[in-house]
Amino acid sequence: MEISTNIQRALAYFHLDKPEASWEELKVRLLAITDESLAIAHGNLGSDFAHSEFYQEMYFALREVSKQGNLSLDQYRALATGQSIMAAANARIEGRPEALVKLIDRLNQNDHHNSQGGVHPSLSVGAPQDPLSWNELSELYMVERSINLKEKSRKGAMTTHRAIGGAFESIGLNDLRGHTREDLIALRTKLLEGRQASTVNNLLSQLGAVLEWAVSTDKLTKHYADKLKITKGADSKREAFTREQVLTLMEQANALPVASWERWALSLLSITGARVGEVSFLTKADIKQVDDLWCIDINEDEDGKSIKTKHSKRLVPLVDGALGFDLSAFLQAVDVGALPSDHGVSPDKASKVLGQLIKQTLGDELGEHRTLHSLRHHMAASMKAAGVELQYAQAVTGHASRTITYDTYGGSIPVQRKHEAICKALEEGVAQ
């Protein structure tokens, strides 16, 4: 019933509920919607969310309507343009108005062509021969897919899409309908400027996903992104910290005030191999005893929390004395509000502050390819060096794939087993 109601709303909103409406009448409504979407002020979180939901609702409703076979050609043209408007309006919320502006120009240009005796309006706006830029395709893709993405993932995808869009602009490709394999090779070459091969491969994965979706939804007839990834020199150059470096960082952490969130965030990253975002979201309720062992409970049970995948939800035991970690002092600090979340510290801020702390502590010894994330690499590499079984390493690090756990970083597992794995890793497994 909700879908039916949404379709009825969409038909009325775009005047598609009037079979007798001419293209000129439909176009007037499309221009009004586009102008309205461009004029709305954004910046209020609640209002922006409501607008975004409406745009997505209309987009999906129009997609359902497009499956019908009883519309006129003019209505199908208006429907296709309406989908583009909703995608562009969603981008406008994030401060990217160019797609809306382009649609207004296109609709107005259509007026000019008609006055000069040009092609029939029903064959212009939204017609297959109209250019389709990467930015337009990206907007359509994100409107449809963003409903399944967490906010952080959505922002990450948009950052990736903007990088790809910039490369398309640099090589002068403004219409993907006629792209060639040579165009995408030129794009890859442009993306490689100032980027590592592994980073470019991530960008190419996103490119391929969007183009594959475009073909499956009839936005494009074909794409040429298969097997574009770089195989030579594409391995990540990230390095794990050495045991000596981690011990130095723990000494620095222990020298910080007991109430310092930096002290405990750096300590937890060092002795658990958790991600910085996971540690940043921890609350007092997430520090708990399970089977007589103190653990951090990594979850997304509260609003605002986020974990990478479903496999990231886990309990990681805290080993007293590991690398100099003082469990008793930590528990007391938790009681007085010394976790990052107690200070309103976001994952991005934590990453920036702790990354700077690491640079200051290690100086020239840091090396070119070590970052805050290298603490996670150190844990996995240490478990591998100590001969920890893969299933226990996976349970500690929260990876879905055993291959990922050891190749990149070095069921329900009892916390006692995980405690033993961490003890073994940090006592025996010395990552060099």
TrEMBL record:
Gene3D superfamilies: 1.10.150.130, Intergrase catalytic core. Belongs to the 'phage' integrase family. GO terms for molecular function: DNA binding. It holds the Pfam family Phage_integrase. Residues 236-423 form the Tyr recombinase domain. This is Tyrosine-type recombinase/integrase. The keyword Zinc does not apply. One of its GO terms (biological process) is DNA recombination. Keywords: DNA integration, DNA recombination, DNA-binding.
